[in-house]
Design goal:
Elements lengths: L1 H8 L10 E9 L4 E11 H4 L10 H5 L5 H12 L8 E5 L2 E12 L9 E5 L2 E7 L14 E7 L4 E4 L2 E3 L2 E6 L8 E7 L22 H32 L25
Parallel strand pairs: 1-7
Antiparallel strand pairs: 1-2, 2-4, 3-4, 5-6, 6-11, 7-10, 8-11, 9-10
């Protein structure tokens, strides 16, 4: 967890790409809190469309306080997306954005206007719709997205990439994206607390159709082997037993007798 958080915190130092970007790394705990951070940032060329100096007379534009234009541009860009929690504005060469850090933060406070992460019994359920809604005018599908979410227990179901107890979603701005990023995972590291039926989608006994097919195939093979062995034994006995008298074989004969001699007179 420490290594993952360290990587997440280093995201600011490795900003790249054009347009609007979302980077987020979260570690969910069993007590319904998270650690990590969120970055929503934009490159300078993207933000230039919100330059207010274009609509001001030259004198007024020049009299604006230093840095105010950049802040206004950033604020206007962020307004088009779900409002993130209060964070820290940051600026790097070519990029500006907002950074939100989480430490023992309740899951309900991650990004209330954009995503949900909630515990339902022994499961965590995550949903992050990407389509536009009443709360924001732009679809989040236009963002480049990199999100990593680590759960206390194993991942049960998701449309992301699974690595151990972690799920990642990574899309470039022009990539086709699902309508929502979703995941379901065990809310506890204890194996006994994790739903067993989720492994196969069948009853908890684990006897799915695959097991029954193997059992039936084995029984058929065993019966065929027994039948073949019985047939061979029957043929072998028939070959060893010859014909008996009176059973249709040649008739028995007795040895010939010598003729008796007689004297005349």
């Amino acid at each position: 967890m420490i290594a993952r958080t360290a990587i997440c915190l280093a995201l600011v130092a490795a900003l790249s790409g054009c347009g609007a970007h979302l980077r987020m790394g979260l570690d969910a705990r069993e007590d319904e809190t998270v650690d990590g951070q969120l970055l929503l940032y934009f490159d300078d060329s993207y933000l230039s469309q919100y330059d207010i100096r274009r609509s001001l007379p030259p004198r007024e534009a020049q009299s604006l306080p230093a840095g105010s234009v950049e802040l206004i541009e950033l604020a206007k860009a962020v307004e088009n997306y779900p409002r993130p929690p209060a964070g820290t504005l940051f600026s790097r060469p070519g990029f500006r954005g907002t950074q939100v850090k989480y430490s023992n933060t309740p899951v309900a406070g991650i990004w209330p206007d954009a995503l949900t992460l909630k515990r339902d019994g022994n499961e965590y359920k995550f949903s992050f719709p990407l389509s536009s809604s009443e709360s924001h005018s732009k679809s989040l599908t236009a963002l480049s997205i990199e999100i990593s979410l680590t759960f206390p227990g194993r991942v049960i179901e998701t449309n992301g990439t699974v690595n151990g107890n972690s799920v990642t979603w990574q899309y470039a701005a022009d990539d086709a994206k699902p309508s929502a990023l979703t995941a379901v995972a065990c809310a506890s590291a204890a194996a006994a607390a994790c739903p067993k039926a989720a492994d196969t989608g069948t009853e908890s006994s684990g006897w799915g159709w695959g097991w029954w097919a193997l059992v039936i195939a084995g029984a058929v093979i065993l019966l065929a082997a027994v039948a073949l062995a019985g047939l061979r034994l029957f043929r072998r006995r028939g070959q060893q037993t010859g014909p008996t008298p009176g059973s249709g074989g040649p008739p028995a004969t007795s040895p010939p007798t010598k003729p008796t001699s007689t004297s005349e007179g």
